[in-house]
């Protein structure tokens, strides 16, 4: 698909806090269930808590951001990082307060056509707990993989 044919839209306020833009890269046509989008976050913008029935992979393209799995500390993500989030894991991701962030998001739909289940918004207190500079994360155990 030519770039002039792809859609770009402002991310819905029901699913995001702050300004974010979604550029559709791929929307699979059966039998494919793949969706790929670039998401551009303004400083401090973030998703709501959400899950993916088949999981999600993020690749950070530019900027500085955070990803947090429910019950764990937020983890910093930088350009080149690849984040692997397992099926059904409740999480959020977004830009650090002083930086923009762009990532490529890849996810597949399940048999019913669902690729994301949105939850409540991340509170300012939850987001504020992600601090820059981040604490050392050496040895930290998480089911989110950042490679």
3D structure, described in words:
With 147 residues, this protein is mainly beta. The protein has a single domain, classed as Jelly Rolls. It is built from 1 helix and 14 strands; from the N terminus they run βββββββββββββαβ. The chain has one helix spanning 124-128; strands spanning 8-10, 16-17, 20-27, 34-41, 46-47, 50-51, 56-63, 65-69, 75-77, 82-85, 91-95, 101-108, 117-118, 145-146. It has a 7-stranded antiparallel beta sheet, with no helix packed on it. Strand 8 (65-69) and strand 9 form a beta hairpin. The longest helix is centred in the C-terminal third of the chain and has 5 residues, at 124-128. The radius of gyration is 15 Å and the shape is globular. The two termini are 29 Å apart. The mean pLDDT is 89.
